[in-house]
Amino acid sequence: VDATTGPLGQGIATAVGMAMAERHLAAKYNRDAYNVVDHYTYAICGDGDLMEGVSAEASSLAAHLQLGRLVVL
User: Fold this and answer.
1) Which of 12, 47, 54, 58 has a Cα at 20 to 30 A from 19?
2) 7, 55 in Cβ contact below 8 A?
3) How far from 40 is each of 3, 26, 44, 51, CA to CA, in Å?
4) Where are the domains of the chain?
5) DSSP secondary-structure letter at 36?
């Protein structure tokens, strides 16, 4: 899913939210024989995004929740 964002840093927070949703849906719908939800979430960001506080807070939340399927480039 492509997502357009507004202010700098918001894209990383959106990606963290998508990764959280992926984990929730995987826990709800995946079964031993069927992996219905099994994907990675990618965010492409620049240096301006990383300098904003919202990206630092979202990254901290992703680390706290151990979102291993989130990739920030």
Assistant:
1) 47
2) no
3) 15, 12, 13, 24
4) 10-72
5) S
CB 42 within 8 A of CB 15: yes
Q: Which residues pair with 43 in a beta bridge?
A: 72
Q: How far is CA 30 from CA 18, 34, 54, 69, in A?
A: 17, 6, 31, 15
Q: What is the C-alpha to C-alpha distance for residues 8 and 28, in angstroms, rounded to an integer?
A: 33
Query: Which amino acid, 58?
Result: A
Put simply, whether the predicted model's pTM sits higher than 0.85 gets the answer yes
